[in-house]
Amino acid sequence: MIAAVAVGFAIVAFFSVNFFDGVGPVTNLGNAVTRPVRTLASNVTGVFERIYASVYRYDDLMARYEQLIAENTRLRGDFRESQELAEQNALLRLQLGFRERNPEYDTEFARVRGWSGSNWSSSFTINRGYANSIIESGNAVITEYGVLIGQVTDVGATTSTVVTVLDTTFSAGAFIGEGDRTATIRGDFNLMRNGLLLLDHIDDDQIVRVGDAIVTSGYGGRFPPRLSIGEVVELHVHPTGIGRFATVRPTRVFDALTEVFVITAFEVDDEE
């Protein structure tokens, strides 16, 4: 039946084309009937074309996004590597400059790992021990500018403990200013909380002024001579009325320390 109807339409269309020059009632009827379908098909085609274009654009944007992510990751890696190289270069220059300024010292460079949380002591940990250095208990610890920070006390495999000059266990012989008469510089619990040291056993006839520099005497062989410790901030008379003492402010602010040098050996001039 479908075939018969199709043949019938074909015959009618044939006569319509031949007798009406291609335009006739059948053609008009066919156009009228198919116009909504053709319009709908055109609209649907346009919608699918736009959807396809959007999907293609999305895929293109995603590919570009992933490319930018990969490029950003690579640049971050390059930046971190350049930072590490810059830090290593700065540390090498620091160590080289220190050794040029202090050829009489054998030193080990160390990083500060952390500070003690105790209120009863002033100490920190460094990343050097007997397995990765030659440092020993009693070695002096200084900054790159020769300021005495403290001394090594406990040496572990890869870390060691350093007590600062503020700690109550620290003491050393000291010169006041450029003179050659000694006093004793040591940590004091009451002063430690204020970031100060105690200078004691000052000779009665020795002139001491606020602002005088306090340096190591070198006597006893524990510390090299003339390492900077601090400066006098106040002078006092002992409560007994016999003798004087002074409070000293350290040259270096300890909380900001990140790198230090441990003196493992040193030479002393014959004149010292």
How large is the share of residues in beta strands?
Answer: 25-35%
Main sheet strand line-up: 1-2-5-4-3-12
Rg over alpha carbons:
44 Å
| Helix proportion range | 25-40%
The total count of helices amounts to: 3
Q: Give average pLDDT, whole number.
A: 82
Query: Are there runs of 5+ residues with pLDDT below 50, and where?
Result: none
Largest sheet: number of strands, sense, barrel closure: 6 strands, antiparallel, barrel
From the spread of the alpha carbons, the general shape counts as rod-shaped
The total strand number stands at 12
Query: What oligomeric assembly is this protein in?
Result: single chain
Structural class: alpha+beta
Order of helices and strands: HHEEEEEEEHEEEEE
What order do the helices and strands come in, and which of them pair?
Blueprint: H1 2-19, H2 25-101, E1 105-115, E2 123-126, E3 140-142, E4 148-155, E5 160-164, E6 171-176, E7 182-186, H3 189-192, E8 197-202, E9 213-216, E10 228-237, E11 244-250, E12 259-266
Antiparallel strand pairs: 1-2, 1-12, 2-5, 3-4, 3-12, 4-5, 6-7, 6-9, 7-8, 8-11, 9-10, 10-11
Summarize the structure.
The chain is α+β, with helices and mostly antiparallel strands.
Describe this structure in words.
- With about 270 residues, the protein is α+β, with helices and mostly antiparallel strands.
- It has three helices and twelve strands.
- Strands 1-2-5-4-3-12 form a six-stranded antiparallel β-barrel. It has a six-stranded antiparallel barrel with strand order 6-7-8-11-10-9.
- The longest helix is centred in the first third of the chain and has 77 residues, at about 25-100.
- The radius of gyration is 44 Å and the shape is rod-shaped.
- About 20% of the residues are buried.
